[in-house]
């Protein structure tokens, strides 16, 4: 067996193990919770109304943001985005979805960190937890909720 064939076998073996880990993650409580609350949020009329309101406010703020603080509507549009963010936090399905998403993110980060650490202490872990808590504020999305996109 040549060195290239041995590497191919090693790579396919590693990929099979990775699929096993992915299957385990997909069967986890974190994924089940995430999918449950995602579905609940997508079917919650109040949540969808707040999402639409947020998207409109975000679009207006992004227009103003191009000109910065000098745009006459900058502060008003920023205040509107922040007010809608408060509404996000008051809708149970959105709040639970965001919390489930953070728990899933933490699981994925922990697994990535464990794999990287098993290879070397100096390998950087991809991604990582957003210490800001995720969510949207100030017109920019930190990735804490899929509805911000």
Give a structural overview.
Strands 1-2 form a two-stranded antiparallel sheet. It is 70% helix and 3% strand. The protein is built from 5 helices and 2 strands. Helix 2 (29-42) runs antiparallel to helix 5 and helix 3 runs antiparallel to helix 4 (74-90). Mean pLDDT is 83; it is low at 130-149. It is mainly alpha-helical. It is elongated and about 70 Å long. Strand 1 (136-137) and strand 2 (140-141) form a beta hairpin.
Q: Helix tally?
A: 5
Structural class: mainly alpha
Question: How would you write the strand order of the largest sheet?
Answer: 1-2
Helix content: 55-70%
If you average the pLDDT, what whole number results? 83
Radius of gyration: 21 Å
* Major sheet: 2 strands, antiparallel
**What is the rounded distance between the termini?**
50 Å
Shape: elongated
Strand content: under 5%
SSE pattern: HHHHHEE
Q: List low-confidence stretches.
A: 130-149
What's the number of extended β-strand segments? 2
What's the quick description here?
The protein has 149 residues and is an all-alpha fold.
Write the layout of secondary structure elements.
Blueprint: H1 3-26, H2 29-42, H3 45-65, H4 74-90, H5 92-119, E1 136-137, E2 140-141
Helix pairs in contact: 2-5, 3-4
């Amino acid at each position: 067996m040549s060195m290239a064939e041995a590497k191919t076998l090693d790579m396919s073996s590693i990929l099979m193990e990775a699929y096993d880990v992915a299957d385990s993650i997909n069967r986890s409580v974190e994924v089940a919770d995430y999918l449950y609350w995602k579905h609940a949020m997508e079917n919650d009329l109040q949540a969808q109304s707040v999402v639409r309101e947020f998207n409109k406010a975000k679009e207006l703020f992004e227009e103003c943001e191009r000109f910065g603080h000098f745009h006459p509507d900058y502060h008003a549009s920023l205040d509107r985005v922040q007010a809608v963010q408060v509404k996000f936090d008051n809708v149970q399905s959105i709040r639970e979805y965001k919390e489930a998403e953070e728990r899933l993110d933490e699981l994925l980060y922990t697994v990535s960190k464990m794999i990287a650490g098993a290879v070397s202490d100096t390998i950087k872990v991809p991604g990582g937890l957003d210490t800001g808590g995720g969510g949207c504020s100030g017109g920019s999305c930190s990735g804490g909720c899929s509805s911000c996109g």
